[in-house]
Each structure stands twice: as structure tokens, then as C-alpha cells.
């Protein structure tokens, strides 16, 4: 079976692949190895899991150099990837006639920065609504979980991308202060 690390290695070697292309590569690798190929839903599930772990990142066609407009998402190797290039990859590339694709990481950084800013604003609004009523421990736990996810994503992407995301640092610090104030108000 093809591992997530190998999927990252395939994507890293080529630059960007659609989910259908990933499925085709996995199928060819499996056949060359004498394994049973994964189904399309299994590949989709692996991609979703790898994206949640920041092993891969979805990008639009506009962020991939030399591709035509499409609704398909492309995947690139992400900040937590430890790519492992499968031995058989060169043969698979020849079979499927794949070529190297460039990715405009500055466009990726701008989009990720905007998305993270939206998530911060959404969490600020949620904190505002929680502050208006009685704070339940479950609400506080939910806010802390969402904050932790934003913080992890910020650090992953800030380390990985060469574009500066430091303007979000102040907003993230303010989120931390507000959540800590809620905790203190609850005597936690």
C-alpha cells in the first residue's frame, strides 16, 4: 500500500497534482508492486486526512504554473510533509506522461493568509457571542480548540512559506489574551 509519505513524495517530485492524478499514480504504483490499487474514495480519504495534518495543501489552478482553468483542486506538498519518493516513480511518470509543474508560493501564501485572517475574525466573533452570556466549560473548550488549531496552522504556514505572515501574530496574541480572560473570569 502506498503511504502518505510516498504520496507527499510523488506530489513533491511533480510539484502539483489533482486528486484524479494522485489516484492514477497510486494505481500504477500499486500495479508495479503487485498490490491491490486503492479505490477513488480511499484516495480521497487519504488526501483529506493528509490535508488536515498539513502534509499536503490544496491550491487552485491559478496557483499552479502552466495549467488551464479548471475547477479541480491541485495538491502540493505541505509544511509537515516528509516526502518519500517511491522507487518506481520515474517509471510511473513515463507511463502517465506527467511533467514537472511549478507552483507560485507567493499566491498560495496570500490565499492562506486571507483564509487564516477570516478564521481569526470568525473566532473573535464567537468569543464576542460567548462573552454576552454565561460561559459554559464546553464553550470555553471549543474556543480553546479552535484557537489551538489556528495557532498551529499559523506556525506551520509561517515557517513553511517565505512570505511574511507576521501581521497575523498580533491578532493571534489578542485571541490568546481574550480566551485567557474568559478562563480567569470562570476561575479556571
From TrEMBL:
<dbReference type="InterPro" id="IPR055533">
    <property type="entry name" value="DUF7109"/>
</dbReference>
<dbReference type="Pfam" id="PF23421">
    <property type="entry name" value="DUF7109"/>
</dbReference>
<protein>
    <submittedName>
        <fullName>Uncharacterized protein</fullName>
    </submittedName>
</protein>
Amino acid at each position: 500500500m502506498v503511504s502518505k509519505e510516498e504520496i507527499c513524495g510523488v506530489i513533491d517530485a511533480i510539484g502539483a497534482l489533482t486528486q484524479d492524478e494522485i489516484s492514477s499514480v497510486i494505481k500504477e504504483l500499486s500495479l508495479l508492486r503487485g498490490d491491490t490499487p486503492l479505490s477513488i474514495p480511499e484516495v480521497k480519504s487519504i488526501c483529506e486526512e493528509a490535508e488536515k495534518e498539513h502534509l499536503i495543501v490544496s491550491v487552485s489552478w491559478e496557483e499552479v504554473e502552466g495549467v488551464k482553468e479548471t475547477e479541480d483542486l491541485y495538491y502540493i506538498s505541505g509544511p509537515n510533509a516528509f516526502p518519500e519518493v517511491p522507487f518506481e516513480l520515474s517509471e510511473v511518470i513515463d507511463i502517465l506522461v506527467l511533467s514537472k509543474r511549478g507552483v507560485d508560493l507567493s499566491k498560495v501564501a496570500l490565499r492562506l493568509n486571507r483564509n487564516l485572517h477570516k478564521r481569526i475574525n470568525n473566532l473573535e466573533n464567537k468569543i464576542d457571542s460567548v462573552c454576552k452570556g454565561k460561559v459554559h466549560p464546553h464553550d470555553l473548550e471549543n474556543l480553546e480548540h479552535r484557537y489551538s488549531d489556528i495557532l498551529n496552522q499559523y506556525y506551520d504556514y509561517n515557517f513553511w512559506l517565505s512570505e511574511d505572515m507576521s501581521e497575523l501574530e498580533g491578532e493571534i496574541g489578542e485571541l490568546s489574551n481574550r480566551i485567557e480572560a474568559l478562563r480567569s473570569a470562570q476561575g479556571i
